[in-house]
Amino acid sequence: MAHRPQNKVLQETPSIDRESFEPAYAQLANILRQSMAEGLLRPGDQLPSEAQIVARYGVSPMTVRRAINILADQGVVNTEQGRGTFVKPVAMSAASFQLGQLQNLFGGATVQVLEASIVAADERVARKLAVRQGKRTIYIRRLLWNHDQPAFYHREYLVYDPARPIVEAELEVTALQQLFSGRSESLLKHGDITMEATLLDEEEACLLQTSLPMAAFCFEHVFYDFDNHPVSWGWFIGRADRMRFTTQVGLLLE
Amino acid sequence: MAHRPQNKVLQETPSIDRESFEPAYAQLANILRQSMAEGLLRPGDQLPSEAQIVARYGVSPMTVRRAINILADQGVVNTEQGRGTFVKPVAMSAASFQLGQLQNLFGGATVQVLEASIVAADERVARKLAVRQGKRTIYIRRLLWNHDQPAFYHREYLVYDPARPIVEAELEVTALQQLFSGRSESLLKHGDITMEATLLDEEEACLLQTSLPMAAFCFEHVFYDFDNHPVSWGWFIGRADRMRFTTQVGLLLE
DNA sequence: AAGTGGTCTAGACCACTAT
DNA sequence: TAGTGGTCTAGACCACTTT
Known about the structure:
Chain A is an alpha+beta fold.
């Protein structure tokens, strides 16, 4: 019988340090991840069975399952009931980009309110905010500054309803950062966010102090209250040359 | 003593159906999520303690922890040891965009090889692929077609090394799709991926059959083998008007 | 039938926070 | 000191796949 990958892993890996501050399940997940990083386990290979791992490392089944669940959540292995657990190949499609990477642009920004007015909802606004056409809405235009440079141009329509405290809160200049970082005790239940690449128009380029043509990222958002009514529709536009998203696929280090 | 949010949750929620196909931990996570969706638990509120949940729903502590871990992983609650578990406010920065959303563009695409040649590495290529300047590399230009429309223009430099099977595999026209969807038994260990918004240049616009100026998404990638040597550097460019990323923050439905 | 992953129990002990 | 979350055990039973 040939040496199968599982056996190498069981034989050539360190044991779990019960004195460590690091939980056993995390150590075990790292041992398995390390085995993949070293090539002991290659894409497609089957991991040792849970029973084997229990015996080899002297931990309980629940601890093994937790370690494997972590790897499965991270997308590096694939569990199939009745068959086994297998190493996933690297796939570019697994890449995910976090908006929070732009924290340096949103986070410490100062907010300049360019306009705050009450306007009647046109067809488009009425549809997005689920109100009747002609209903009064609050329209706000803001410029977010960071390091003395304009980072984002933000336009937003808010449902106008004196009974909704969210509207008052939104007018505060700090509200935007709270919305981004989630520090507010907000009355929002959830939101839909869309990312697009666009060209700046003349007004946007002027405010963002650049020349045309210029590529830009546009983040459109709709936020809903606890009755599932939209309360805010708006979009952030920022110069593409000051933004990039990076991520990794496959084995994460550590 | 006032009715605190926890009590409402404990009193006004359904019990766990032990006959259901849905595991107890998933049911419990949904019950808690539903409590937030209904406003029984608002951002900042403390969840019932694990001991209370154990008593109320008649499940073991491990099952409760698993349910809460799921909510914590999804970013809707926040656990603090010694203090409790709390509902997180909605934060736009929590948005994450999955490259896999473009599966319709990458997935069923047919690949047209425009060029495949051997070129000497210039300074930039040598740096990205960690080889000496002047070393021979393989340069490939491809056009990905989808529904009879050009979807992506892809350029890629590969380390030229007859001992590396990856190079041969990459030349196959199907390799790109495999890379994206991860079906191949690849020899790649991990990759770095960067997303930017750019303007198309003339050549790109021509190949993608559009006019200037046009915004575009650019996905740059570097893939590494199991020795942590880069083997591939390239980038996909696609028209922005045919791509958008959407996601949600806060409470996910179901 | 044997082996695999998936769920769950009923506790235990620990670390941390508040009072 | 009491209450909280965090970890872990040593099994049990189940559903599924392979032989």
